[in-house]
Write the structure tokens for this entry.
Amino acid sequence: MAQTPPPVLGLKTQAEPYATASVVNHPKTIGWPDGRKPVAPRGYEVIKFASGLDYPRQALLLPNGDMLVAEARTKPKLDAEPDVQRGQALSKTTGFSANRITLLRDANRDGVAEQRFVLIKGLNQPFGMQYANGRLYVANTDGVVSVPFSPGQTRVTTTPQPLVSLPAGATTITGRATCC
């Protein structure tokens, strides 16, 4: 006969998945006020490596010290709930998207990028990257692509090769959105 585990004091019974409304909390983009910067633990200093990026999603440090940054905003959903639309507008997470990978180079190794290059443009909301075996892999909202790449390059001119397609805006069996 199966035994019921004893209740854990202080924990409330939770509702079944999807039995309650979802909560959406959007970030408020504030940047660094003039003359101020984030506080670091004792013995460390925060330095602004780069600015002026268009909604950076992920950064990838390459073996040669260059930094790649995926820049992309979310496409506005015309059928989104009013609270979601308002939150996205206030957080500036939606709108025109750069849809690119930017390369930042700190040539003199002082902790600040002096050079900036558009490495790849024309992507579809890139949000993840990985470099391995002479290729750069980029996760877009609709799939994963790859291009031949060597650290030190400042521009990729070959067309990204699709590796995996994803149904952007796909839904699960329950009808709830699973991406983007």
The chain is about 5% helix and 25% strand.
